[in-house]
Task: inverse folding
């Protein structure tokens, strides 16, 4: 009897230890910060990910607070519903459900104007990021912070997890001369910070235009630890954009997004975007042999065929490789992406093409593309950006909110 009881206790302890943590999002904690919202007219930068952990949309959450008026919405790339294709410029509109104006920040403008903010007291940002420098939601946030600072409005970030954890940092730190809307600040490709931590860093470092400083408040999460992947939080993963369906895709995205700067399809519109890639003219078996011979950390490649439903080679049968992640904790996605592009370039010299400016903006430098073209060793570049990442880890330390 005693042994059975002991087994039950041990089993219960194991279950509790291995069950998902109860993470509360920033939006779940706003009741503890009522003073920020009471008596205010609120503009919300939001999209389809802006739900609390109980499935309630941010507009409804704020409207239920006493003496709070929601007066406008602002939408990022992919639109308020998160259904628009990458890169598609969007117009402002009216939201039929709430009867609110929806100002597009991914179209003719990317930064709220003084006219848009005239009837707003505070701007609230609540959008799920993916942990990669070139994901544009980060810059929608920072440019809105600039606008808030320039127009005397308080800016509030409701924090959310870095879905690919807050420990691992990897990739080239952006060279400022390659700044663009897929990379504005000197941070690595994979920065290992929450959107709220980044907001504090951007604001404190004077990276906003003309060094302006926003009146910034970050409403923190509770229960989140830096080592957590999103599927360890107990939260529902709402795909942040049409081709970001799950955490495994987010894990490899900091490297496979580099294919956007080439004529190789990243399998948009398939069931495995960014986890498979190819073109109609690729020798799939040969490609996988070359890639597997590199013994890239935590990755295996399998020959596959697929038909993209959007972007490059739309509706054409493509041949290439499917990625199998064997140990995401040891994954080096940016280094893997650079090596994949290098192999594709060497195997297909007559057909591979660069979208050079975009590739360089994604990398944050032109040195990677130039080294691949010259067929120079890439390891020295990796060593250099590893040193940059170490410096970044030290520089970000004061802005980290959550424990390991």
Result:
């Amino acid at each position: 009897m005693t042994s059975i009881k002991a087994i039950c206790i041990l089993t219960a302890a194991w279950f509790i230890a291995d069950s998902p943590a109860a993470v509360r999002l920033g939006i779940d904690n706003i009741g503890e910060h009522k003073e920020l919202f009471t008596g205010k007219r609120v503009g919300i930068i939001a999209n389809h990910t802006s739900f609390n952990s109980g499935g309630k949309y941010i507009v409804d959450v704020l409207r239920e607070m006493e003496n709070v008026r929601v007066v406008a919405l602002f939408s990022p790339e992919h639109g308020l519903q998160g259904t628009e294709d990458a890169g598609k410029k969007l117009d402002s509109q009216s939201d039929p459900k709430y009867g609110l104006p929806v100002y597009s920040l991914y179209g003719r403008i990317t930064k709220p104007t003084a006219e848009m903010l005239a009837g707003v007291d505070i701007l609230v940002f609540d959008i799920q990021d993916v942990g990669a420098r070139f994901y544009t939601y980060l810059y929608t946030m920072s440019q809105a912070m600039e606008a808030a600072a320039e127009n005397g409005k308080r800016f509030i970030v409701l924090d959310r997890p870095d879905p690919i954890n807050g420990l691992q940092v990897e990739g080239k730190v952006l060279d400022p001369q390659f700044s663009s809307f897929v990379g504005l600040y000197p941070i690595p490709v994979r920065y290992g910070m929450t959107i709220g931590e980044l907001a504090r860093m951007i604001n404190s470092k004077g990276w906003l235009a003309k060094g302006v400083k926003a009146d910034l408040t970050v409403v923190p999460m509770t229960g989140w630890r830096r080592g957590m992947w999103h599927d360890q939080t107990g939260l529902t993963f709402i795909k942040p954009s049409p081709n970001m369906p799950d955490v495994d895709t987010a894990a490899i995205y900091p490297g496979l997004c580099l294919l956007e700067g080439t004529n190789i399809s990243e399998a948009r519109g398939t069931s495995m975007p960014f986890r498979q890639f190819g073109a109609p003219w690729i020798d799939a078996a040969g490609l996988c042999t070359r890639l597997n011979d590199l013994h890239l950390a935590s990755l295996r490649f399998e020959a596959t065929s697929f038909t993209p439903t959007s972007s490059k080679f739309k509706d054409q049968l493509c041949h290439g490789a499917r990625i199998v992640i064997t140990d995401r904790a040891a994954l080096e996605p940016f280094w893997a992406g650079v090596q994949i592009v290098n192999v594709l370039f060497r195997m297909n010299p007559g057909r591979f093409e660069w979208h050079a400016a975009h590739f360089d903006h994604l990398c944050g430098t032109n040195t990677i593309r130039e080294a691949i073209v010259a067929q120079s060793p890439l390891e020295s570049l990796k060593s250099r950006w590893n040193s940059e990442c170490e410096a970044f880890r030290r520089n970000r330390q004061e802005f980290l909110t959550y424990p390991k």
